[in-house]
Design brief:
The protein is of the alpha/beta class. It has helices at residues 17-28, 46-52, 55-79, 93-104, 123-133; strands spanning 4-9, 33-41, 84-90, 108-112, 138-141. Strand 4, helix 5 and strand 5 (138-141) form a beta-alpha-beta unit. Helix 1 (17-28) runs parallel beside helix 3 and helix 4 crosses helix 5. The longest helix is centred in the middle third of the chain and has 25 residues, at 55-79. The chain starts with a strand and ends in an 8-residue tail after the last strand.
Length: 149
């Protein structure tokens, strides 16, 4: 059996790393897997397009922002000696993530139930939509109860 390839979408928030910690726990228990860490950027709005004059500049800025947001997740997985690819894309989060997982041939998705709040991303809604539309199994990781007991 070949190694599983698992997509982990992250948005740079502490919460989105819950999915990475879950993946590390699974590999620590013997799961053989490699990972694709992905970040989906919001498309440029009209104001940004008008101000930038150059769509390529916006693309570069978006790509750099995505790579920056993925860095903590990549470092955690690489420190554990795991194979990791990365992908930054722009668009509607859930549908774009499905495109990424199909492009990379992923067998499954692990994502956090909640990410950064605010206008940029709302992983809760994305997680819900991914469960509905993804063609592969989706594991939604709820936040660890940090202050219970």
């Amino acid at each position: 059996m070949s190694m599983l390839k698992i997509l982990i979408p992250v948005d740079g928030s502490e919460r989105s790393l819950d999915a990475v910690h879950h993946a590390l726990a699974l590999t620590g228990r013997g799961l053989r897997a490699r990972f694709v860490v992905a970040n989906v950027q919001s498309p440029a709005n009209l104001y940004e397009l008008v101000v930038a004059h150059n769509p390529q500049v916006l693309q570069q800025v978006s790509e750099a922002a995505g790579r920056d947001l993925m860095r903590p997740a990549l470092e955690l997985l690489q420190a554990a000696g795991l194979q990791v690819e990365q992908d930054v894309a722009t668009g509607d989060p859930a549908h774009t993530l499905v495109e990424i997982l199909e492009r990379h041939g992923c067998d499954a998705v692990i994502l956090s139930a909640h990410g950064a709040s605010g206008f940029r991303t709302q992983l809760g809604a994305v997680a819900h939509e991914m469960v509905q539309i993804a063609p592969v199994p989706v594991t939604v990781v709820r936040p660890a109860e940090r202050d219970s007991d």
